[in-house]
Design the sequence.
């Protein structure tokens, strides 16, 4: 079993795609269309590869949950990368700032960014293949 996709409601499809294309240059738009969702017209789009993707639905409104609070909702989601420096460079070049650095660990580096909709993404690079080192929590 594996996670195939996340389905996210966003405010602006173009700004959302700009962020995720910088983070995932190897992904593409797998499919897209229009639909009516509870009386509101919206565009949907699947962005990913053959096995994993993110679904974006535009015309979202309101604010995302505050990340410093304890409200129910998504706190963040994370992706593993083999080249954290390259990923950071692409996102900085595209105009995005690091939201915060991750906790210090001898076997992983991680950094957090916020997308244009307020979703927080963690990107992590492991320096060990050993689960007992990768999952060492201090």
Sequence:
């Amino acid at each position: 079993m594996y996670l195939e996709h996340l389905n996210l409601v966003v405010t602006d499809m173009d700004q959302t795609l700009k962020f995720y294309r910088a983070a995932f240059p190897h992904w593409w738009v797998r499919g897209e269309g229009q639909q009516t969702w509870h009386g509101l017209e919206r565009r949907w789009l699947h962005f990913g590869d053959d096995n994993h993707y993110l679904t974006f639905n535009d015309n979202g409104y309101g604010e995302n949950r505050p990340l410093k609070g304890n409200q129910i909702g998504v706190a963040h989601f994370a992706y593993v990368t083999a080249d954290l420096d390259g990923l950071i460079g692409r996102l900085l070049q595209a105009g995005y700032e690091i939201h915060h650095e991750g906790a210090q660990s001898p076997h992983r580096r991680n950094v957090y960014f916020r997308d244009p909709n307020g979703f927080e993404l963690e990107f992590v690079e492991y320096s060990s293949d050993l689960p007992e080192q990768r999952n060492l929590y201090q």
